[in-house]
Design goal:
six-stranded antiparallel beta sheet; single chain; alpha+beta; 5 helices; Penicillin V Acylase, Chain A; 13 strands
Length: 263
């Protein structure tokens, strides 16, 4: 997953809204959004067929967890566990706080290649950073819009700046947040205010070339494979609304997959 937008405590009727684009090599096999876990809490997400994990997990209680990877010039260390296990762990609980507690208790330095995660529910939001040389670092985040790509949260990022600018403009124009989140996922604009190293920062050319700094990515061998929109209602008895585009969101319609909550 190369773009995660968590809007938390911004709308009283929907305390958590998530917009996400999954960017990946076009030849990497994956299963479409479906049931990841049938036991409680029931969980939906896509499934990476190579390593078995997921990039975004949503459970019926309203916990949402997403992952972005830190690119590596030599590629990931294949001796380490799949980072796609981590959203499953975090969303495998009724509360985001409990998922974070399990991760902190079980995961130690060096078990996974570096990554960043956001996990939230109606009442809490956490940022998790995994590095090579230390145990996971967890930070509770305040209400607001938090945007994560393939760099650490808060690090300089033309991609993040572009998304935030679009959402700020939409708010100033009186546009509701939910359609604004959907709109940013289809944006092909490559920021023009790039630093000399922005095209290569953090990894190999296939991952960080300038074209990948757009929200919706298209290259010959790599790009936006799917997109997800999640809206968690304030009513704890109601399941999250989940819309999925099983292809680039600029050209693929979003489909409501809510029927997949039903056994």
């Amino acid at each position: 997953m190369c773009l995660l937008v968590f809007a938390w405590q911004m709308d009283p009727s929907s305390p958590l809204m998530v917009a996400a684009n999954r960017d990946e090599r076009l030849d990497r096999p994956a299963l479409p959004f479906g049931v990841l876990q049938e036991s409680e809490p029931r969980m939906l997400g896509g499934r990476d067929q190579r390593a078995g994990g997921t990039w975004l997990a949503v459970n019926e209680g309203g916990v949402v967890s997403g992952l972005t990877n830190r690119p590596s010039p030599g590629g990931p260390d294949r001796t380490k566990r799949s980072r796609g296990e981590l959203p499953l762990m975090l969303a495998g609980h009724d509360r985001a706080e409990d998922g974070v507690a399990e991760l902190v208790g079980r995961i130690h330095a060096g078990q996974y290649n570096p990554a960043w995660l956001l996990v939230a529910d109606r009442t809490s939001l956490f940022y998790v950073e995994l590095a090579d040389d230390r145990d996971p670092v967890v930070r509770s985040l305040p209400p607001g819009i938090h945007i994560l790509e393939n760099v650490a949260l808060g690090s300089p990022s033309p991609k993040v700046d572009r998304v935030r600018s679009q959402l700020t403009t939409a708010e100033a124009d009186g546009e509701p947040l939910w359609p604004a989140l959907r709109s940013v996922l289809s944006d092909h604009t490559v920021p023009t205010d790039l630093r000399p190293d922005d095209g290569e920062a953090g990894g190999p050319e296939v991952v960080r070339r300038p074209a990948t700094l757009a929200a919706c990515v298209h290259t010959d061998d790599y790009g936006t494979r799917s997109a997800e929109l999640v809206r968690v209602p304030s009513d704890a008895r109601a399941r999250p609304e989940v819309l999925v585009a099983e292809g680039p969101p600029c050209a693929t319609p979003f489909v409501d997959v809510g029927a997949r909550w039903v056994v």
